[in-house]
Amino acid sequence: MNRPSKLASAIKFGLIASVSTTAFATSSIALAEEAGADVERIAVTGSRIQRQDMETASPVTVIGAEEIRAEGFTTVDELLQAQTSMGGKAVGSSTNNGADGVAQVDLRGMGSQRTLVLLNGRRMVNSGSGANSSVDLNSIPVAMIARVEILKDGASAVYGSDAIAGVVNIITKKDFEGFQVDVQGGMTDKSDGENGEISALYGFNTDTGNYTFGAAYSERKGVIQSDRDWTDPGNSSFIPNGSLGGKVKDENGNWVDREEGYDFTQDSFYQTPSKRYSLFANMTQELGDDIVMTGDILYTKRKSNQQLAPQPANIMLDVCEAGQDPMTCLELDQDMIDAGITPDKNGQVNYRKRMNDVGPRIYNQDTDTWRISAGLEGSLDINTGMNWDASYTYGNNKAKTGVENSINANLMADAIYADQDPWLTGQPMTDQDLLNSVSYDEQADGGNEQHVFSAGLNGELFDLDAGAVAFAIGAEYRYESGYYNPDPIVVAGESTAAQQDPTDGSYNVISVFQEVSVPFTDKLTGEFALRFDDYSTFGNASTWKIGLTYEATDDLMLRTVAATGFRAPSVSELYGGNSGSYDYLVDPWGNEKDPQILVNRTSDEDLKPEESESYTAGLVYSPSYVDGMSLTVDYWRFKVKNAITRLDTQAGIDACYAGDASACETFNIGADGDLSNLTNSLTNVGFQDTSGIDFNLAYNFEALSLDWTVSNDTTYLLNFEQDGKDYTGTIDGNFGAYAEVRNNFSIKAGQDDWTVMYFNRYIGEMDDLATGDKVDSVLYHNLSASYFINDAWMLSAGVKNFTDEEPSKVSNGSDGGTVPEVYDVIGRTYFAGVTMKF
């Protein structure tokens, strides 16, 4: 057997050192290696080939349980979004509008749907409010995580669809023995935003296996936007006393122009409340004859809330004509006419009212997510080195969602026709029965289901002078389905919210795949992967991957990967029907006075898959003259074509106005600029092109009788283009942040039973996409410490955003004058915890 080089060992020990609570098998490998014993083969994220060494041609970041705890992360999305390789605008705990409590990851800022999330190397079911295209990371409790591995190149040739930008593989705690209880909590220095988690882990060994069980409960409380003094007050044209034709009634009963808007930040969250209940279990059981059975079960219930300002009712009222029944229309008196309130060409006038008399919109979700996975693995013949495996994974997600204090637009219009006075006085409404007659609690339900059968064979084919040629082949069947049923009032188009159709659909895919690792020389190794997927929806797709590693010296390894990838259209993209959206648009014909124009967003059953190309090239350097130091530098580029997207609606309107008949037809624009049926359908016309450089430095050393660990991660974004627009170095409330420089630095010192750590996170200066103005950089500082009282008790505490940095201002920020998904909008936060192990 070839002995690993100093470089390979350094990489391996460096990875293992960063993972304090890793699997027993991996730790055993390290010990066996150190002792010079034979080493069993292990699985590495990004490959199905069992290998001795943990280094591959693909760049992988490993985040261990100890690091997660030290930095005070309480959710998976929070720890992932802190990584420099993330970008864009992934939804999470700070997304108050439109996320339904879901938390996602956005690797390279390419979209959460283009990052594949695995649990113990196997797929997770998409989850959320129904017919979702990404995994809800809330379904995975932090308490069960041993480590997180982030593969930062395209991996469709290994894992199939969705792995365009990379893979996040969450490895759970297993092979645990004993009983452990963890309690931790935190709150802001403003005495709000409290959060806490209590978890228990129990495991025991038998003569032939291990069984590990866990449970966790976590709760997060809300933070109101207006409770932060840096928040820009909102200024909505929808005001509580109502407006008619753009005019409002003053205290003297005169119709005048509106002067002040409504501050919606007093009703909206920066941090959304949530409760989560989780149960999980792992088992490993030898069945004899070199057969091992593995399995894991996960169940998570999430109850979450968001809150927005009371419903902005936007209603077009029919104006009475001569002889018309006044109970079916709005009568304009002379004061209204004198004030300039007149009907439009359709004989209507616009009425707007912020429904404070009813109450804020309170969104609620009750989701249940199950995942059960079981597998068998064994050896065909211990002398041949051939191993087989077979597994089945089932995932199910169901959700009940609702919105309290919604408004029925039809009933509200009828109520105004029946009696104008309560609605047009400009005073608060006191008739609760009248308010109850136009309001309702919106109810919806949805879900996702997944079945995956997989089988494979791996081992060594034959020996070359430099070593054995290793391989993995296999086949997989996967079935995905999803549905979402909006409230019947919304489906009927009678709500003040946009109309939406139900979603219901499914597809299946049969896949075959193979990988080969070839040691051309003692220093040069090639990795080759090929995959074929046959979908019931669009047909087939083939992807490949070629990787090379070259050990130039004992200190330096060069690596590169070229790969193709794809993303299959999701259930919602294929079968979503119409989903209305009020977009800010300009009507060049002048027919639409309201800047928010209804756009019918439709799906398409004939969508084709997205296609991608990726390329990475870099080096791993572990200088022999500096013991304990290693650094990596990797260049990366991703290109996506045929991306599933929507055309630019404003550009389509402008083209139609300029005489382009095809644009009028594409966007369903009627004669003379009739936008009443304005439609924008999903289509395969989008593209992305992004590139950058990752740099990592890790250094472990002893000084001043202390053990030190220094780490620095930098991502420099060279380019990010999407659909013909350059987002490099910009930030926007709709698209998020594409900072040219992101940097994470940490230094940890410890001795025997205590450690202290300082961590900072830097987000570079960007341009405001809407205005071109400079948006300031920000540097966050975190401190933490842990102390082992004895073998059974450990205490930890820390503070995040120690200097209470304010988020940078963004002109069209998604909330509060900034982008909460990018910047810390909570402020200084304290956290502490205790671990008891028996």
Structure notes:
The protein is mainly β and 838 residues long. The chain has 13 helices and 41 strands. The chain has a 22-stranded antiparallel barrel. A hairpin with a 3-residue loop joins strand 23 (524-535) and strand 24.
In short:
This is TonB-dependent receptor. It is a multi-pass membrane protein. With 838 residues, the protein is mainly beta.
What does the radius of gyration come to? 29 Å
**SS elements, strand count:** 41
- Into which percentage range does the β-strand content fall? over 45%
Low-confidence stretches: 1-6, 8-39
Shape: globular
Helical residues, percent: 10-25%
- Measured between the Cα atoms of the first and last residue, the distance is 41 Å
Count of separate DSSP helical elements: 13
Secondary structural class: mainly beta
Give the integer mean of the pLDDT values.
Answer: 91
Largest sheet: 22 strands, antiparallel, barrel
Family: Belongs to the TonB-dependent receptor family.
Domain TonB-dependent receptor plug: 54-167
Protein name: TonB-dependent receptor
Membrane topology: Multi-pass membrane protein
List the keywords.
22-stranded antiparallel beta barrel; mainly beta; 838 residues
Write the layout of secondary structure elements.
Blueprint: H1 6-17, H2 24-35, E1 60-64, H3 65-70, H4 76-81, E2 115-119, E3 122-123, E4 145-151, H5 156-159, E5 166-172, E6 178-188, E7 195-205, E8 209-220, E9 223-224, E10 243-244, E11 247-249, E12 255-257, E13 269-271, E14 274-288, E15 291-308, E16 312-318, H6 334-338, E17 348-354, E18 361-381, E19 386-407, H7 409-418, H8 421-424, H9 432-438, E20 439-464, E21 467-485, H10 488-491, E22 503-519, E23 524-535, E24 539-551, E25 556-567, H11 571-575, E26 578-584, E27 596-602, E28 610-621, E29 629-646, H12 649-657, H13 661-666, E30 679-703, E31 706-722, E32 725-726, E33 730-732, E34 736-737, E35 741-751, E36 754-763, E37 766-768, E38 774-775, E39 778-788, E40 793-800, E41 829-837
Parallel strand pairs: 2-5, 27-30, 33-37
Antiparallel strand pairs: 1-4, 2-3, 4-5, 6-7, 6-41, 7-8, 8-14, 9-13, 10-17, 11-12, 14-15, 15-18, 16-17, 18-19, 19-20, 20-21, 21-22, 22-23, 23-24, 24-25, 25-28, 26-27, 28-29, 29-30, 30-31, 31-32, 31-35, 33-34, 35-36, 36-39, 37-38, 39-40, 40-41
Pfam family, one: Plug
Keywords: Cell outer membrane, Membrane, Receptor, Signal, TonB box, Transmembrane, Transmembrane beta strand, Transport
Family: Belongs to the TonB-dependent receptor family.
